[in-house]
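Input structure tokens:
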């Protein structure tokens, strides 16, 4: 059985106006369903965007942890320097003050009070 390119089998359909109308109707139905799904996704995204990034108590906990960590690291490094070099109490005093300054700097950075120089595109120096 040779096929010459023109088959009139049941799987081959010729386009007709009735078929085009049915296709247009199905396409319109699919388009409306797609818009509904996108609208639902958009409303979910809007509600997520409106929620705060971090609760107030969570932010306070983070800021206090940043501050205390700076003090503890500075004090620990000062204590270790004093034991190693025998400069008691000057190493601990100096590094504890530096740790406190680092703690303040970390709190200001975490709170968003200071802008990163690489992220600042305002042109101000």
């Amino acid at each position: 059985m040779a096929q010459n390119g023109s088959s009139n089998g049941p799987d081959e359909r010729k386009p007709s106006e009735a078929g085009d109308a049915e296709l247009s109707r199905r396409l319109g139905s699919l388009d409306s369903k797609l818009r509904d799904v996108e609208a639902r996704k958009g409303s979910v995204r809007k509600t997520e965007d409106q929620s705060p990034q971090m609760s107030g108590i969570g932010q306070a906990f983070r800021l206090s942890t940043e501050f205390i960590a700076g003090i503890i690291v500075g004090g620990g490094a000062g204590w270790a320097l004093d034991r190693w070099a025998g400069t008691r109490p000057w190493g601990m005093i100096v590094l504890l003050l530096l740790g406190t300054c680092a703690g303040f700097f970390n709190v200001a950075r975490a709170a968003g009070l200071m802008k990163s120089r690489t992220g600042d595109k305002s042109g101000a120096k």
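The first helix runs from residue 17 to 50. Residues 61 and 93 are 26 Å apart (CA to CA).
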